[in-house]
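Morning - flavin-adenine dinucleotide inputs below, output right after.
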Amino acid sequence: MDYDVIVVGGGHAGIEASLACSRMGSRTLLITQSLDTIGRLSCNPAIGGLAKGNLVREVDALGGQMGHLIDSTMVQFRILNRRRGPAVQAPRAQADKFSYSRLAKETLEAQKDLDLFMDTVTALIVEGSSVIGVRTRRGHSISAKAVVVTTGTFMDGKIFIGDYDAPEGRLGEEGAFGLGDWLRGFGFRTARLKTGTPARVDRQSLDFSRLERQDGDVPIFPFSFDSPAFERAQMPCWIAYTNLATHKIIRDNISRSPLYGGKIVGKGPRYCPSIEDKVIRFPDRDRHQIFIEPEGSGTSEVYLNGLSSSLPEDVQNAFIHSIEGLENARVMRPAYAVEYDFLPPTQLYPSLASKLLKGLYFAGQTNGTSGYEEAACQGLMAGINAALYFRGEQPLILGRNQAYIGVLIDDLVTKGTEEPYRMFTSRAEYRLNLRQDTADQRLTQIGYQIGLASRSRVDALEMKLKSIEEIKAILKSRSVNNANALEYLKRPECDIENLINDIPELGNYSQELRYQTEQDIKYDGYIKRQDIEVQRFVRLEGLRIPESFDYDSAPSLSSESREKLKRIRPASIGQAQRISGIRTSDIAVLLILLRRDDED
Amino acid sequence: MKSFDTNDMIYALATPRARGALAVFRASGEGCIEALSKVFSPAGKLRDCPTNTCIYGRLLDIDQVVVNVYRNGHGYTGQEAFELMCHGSLSAFDMISAKLEELGFRAAMGGEFTMRAFLSGKMDLTQSEAVQDIVNSDSPISQKQAFSKLQGSLFKAIEAFKSTLLDILAPIELQLDYAQDDIEDEFGFPYSRLEALIKDIDALAATYRTSPLVQEGARVVLAGPVNAGKSTLFNLLLKSDRAIVSPIKGTTRDYLEAPCLIDGHKVRLFDTAGLRQSEDDLEKQGIQRSRLVIEDADLVVYLSPDIQDLESQCESWIRVQSRCDESVSDGPFLKLSCITGQGLEELCHVISSRLGSLVETCDGMMIQSARQAQGLHEASLCLKRAIETSEIGLDLSAGHIGNALRCLGELVGETSSDEMLERIFSSFCVGK
Ligand SMILES: Cc1cc2nc3c(=O)[nH]c(=O)nc-3n(C[C@H](O)[C@H](O)[C@H](O)COP(=O)(O)OP(=O)(O)OC[C@H]3O[C@@H](n4cnc5c(N)ncnc54)[C@H](O)[C@@H]3O)c2cc1C
Ligand SMILES: Nc1nc2c(ncn2[C@@H]2O[C@H](COP(=O)(O)OP(=O)(O)OP(=O)(O)O)[C@@H](O)[C@H]2O)c(=O)[nH]1
Ligand SMILES: [Mg+2]
């Protein structure tokens, strides 16, 4: 055996997968098409945001890398939706793209038990019902006990700019061919999805006097629970607006879009529409907002967030120039759309293991998601589970009540997806329990137990919990405006920061800790109520359905439900209930049959 | 998501939701006896009794009850369970249900007790289709079931609530799932829309209280002093000689009950013992029973030839000056003679219009089952919480609205988070 685990693809999923495996003691090889593009941010130069920021915190809490990478390379930091409630506030940072991917590669190179190799995987090697290695384009056969596939937008990738198309996964980067055919040949289903990215223009060609400036927040709260508080000079973003002239140009040329002309068959994300989608679907709007984001401190390229398009370049130029402040913008890279193969994820178990082949895991955009954070968290989980598989241990599956990661993976494997899947807080039933600042409380112990999160992290967590208790004790012992300070803080309008004058001891703790304590206090009653629902949820997840369960031997299941159950093979009654279109009566039947099997 | 938990505490009224001498609540699930003992006295006796015992006691100040206790492995479901016998009055049903829910019980789904009985091996039905039928029999109102007009419009009404709620929730979730500066639309918390919806939901839920009135007939009780002519009127309305009529005071002892139609209204008509101070033990008992019947009446028709007596009676009763052919005194009350027939038609008319206003319907719709009523109640409660918490955090508020959606969903079919997202994306232009 050449390696314990092979990871295919050095994107955000592949980085986490290969680091997790090697850190958990598996000898790991990362094979990727180009060593120069490891950890590249294909689209917007930012990490985090609503729900996504929570994912990054969770990845970090388990012992993943993304939080560290962005902490070291951010050029702007913001906390979003602070005033909407703690359950939905999240950190977002602008990254310096080049430093980000360079640091990613350096981290991989420095990792013990991890090798990097540049080649393209074109086939898997199979023995019986297990995968035992990969074959590459340059003819190598490399063996391993487990393989994690993270091909991103590259598998049979094709990019489009108006009439132009090319077999690429990103502009200027060759797609990955061969593996898709092999998978289909073996019996996997694949399908097409599409996504797009806007143009990058030269910062020096913009008229900033006509743009709105948007600065970052101070202080910066690091993404990683490891990172000490830090200060850093931040770069601003800028805001521009499209106008009626912009929209007219787009409408007049809509027939030249490969999407509207029918050239692209893959489905694109509704939540991330191209500018032509927005103009066509919302004809009443007289403007759309554009965020101009720096691609990094060492480059002149800036990213036109909100203008993703697959229209021909002359049309792109025309509509960009119709925007105030961008009249003379010089396009350095055009906007384009990419269409690629993905693996409908109902072919996977909640461990991200394939149902078809033992030892084979899929993660990232390959599973129908979009976004760096969505990719990273799956990469981490697939890596962890590949390593656990190698060790002969049970897989790690996070519940919907434990982490956004759990929600994401459960949604994918239980319901599948028809469009690129992005995380939203509204997808989580128990989002009050999934606050970004509690990711360590939820997950670090788990990360430590599987050998991924370090001991020092657990110590830090204990310290943090102790401090929070101390703050609560201080509050409890003091009164403000004739009320107990702890009770006083429960009122919506009260802010812990305003208590520091009256209770100076609070100043001994960091603002982050004070903030988290305040939220704990304010939400305490609601969380307790939610906990009752959570208990019920956990009980249903605990009613396991054996993998070997024979649905055909249950004549009383409705045939529609039977087909679905056979396809998804849910791990528990809880999961079975979430399969769309499963009848309650069939769940009842299942319970009875399981019970009967138990007795046999 | 409609949950199929098999261990939590469930309850249901096992006898029809109708007045009667006795009624039985059934409950099952881990910890249910301990939970009940919190509102039962003597609590210790209930908590510590062995299985298959019968305990008599009080349920707070609601009712005197008898509880049959089944420990794990016994009883119908084979789980820890109890049957609670109480008096069969609607207000007791409502109070007991509310108390049980407060204690953490939830209303059982149709067939859930049977289902648990299967699961604990208490029932030897080899064919699980039987369970399917049972479970399906109380599944959410489906489009297919909409053959009945009532169910059809109910389905549409609840669907409409759901849809309104999605419309309300979409802009809120939008605020939560997108950064403030990504959203160009103005946002204000939709207080008035929520309040309007709560009102609508409550109105529909309120029809449940009155629906037995329609299904079984309203209880119309004829009361009054001895010899007022109650039994004579009773026979007249029934168009048959059911009751004994005689000039002897105190002829009627045990109350009589008979179904009848009054101007098209289904009615359960009661003739009662004439009210007077009596030394006769039998008559005293009869009068005592009559008082109970009067207490539980939907409508009381009080007959008396004596105007002063009529004046001193309850204003919400229909007060009738009977035997008006004999009397000369004049009063503001409806005059009736069972001999000449004077006033009979008018009396029927008054009864019928009072019954009409008793039966609350919501555009002709009526809630039929406890589960439907509970679903609506809960939804309304969640929406009230959503309003209460809107100042604390939009995330809390949205959670409550989401719960309300789930409650409605359990009645007519689930709302998936995808539906929610769909609503957002089709109504708002967001995303980069
Ligand atoms: C044009 C475009 C637009 C996008 N738009 C958005 C957006 O609007 N919103 C959003 O959230 N995200 C967007 N992204 C997606 C975001 O870039 C991805 O979600 C994220 O990078 C996925 O990470 P990944 O690790 O799954 O795959 P990738 O980052 O794509 O990495 C895959 C890696 O695997 C390598 N590889 C593939 N196949 C093989 C093989 N057979 N052998 C060896 N190596 C292989 C590739 O070379 C690549 O390095 C966009 C991406 C592109 C290209
Ligand atoms: N004149 C006259 N006699 C009536 C009328 N109604 C009833 N009576 C007579 O009054 C007597 C008592 O009538 P009941 O109907 O038995 O009276 P009741 O109210 O049922 O009396 P109790 O059962 O004793 O409480 C009978 O003799 C009836 O015939 C009426 O409208 N006019
Ligand atoms: Mg009588």
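Note: Residues 5 and 409 of chain B are 17 Å apart (CA to CA).

O.
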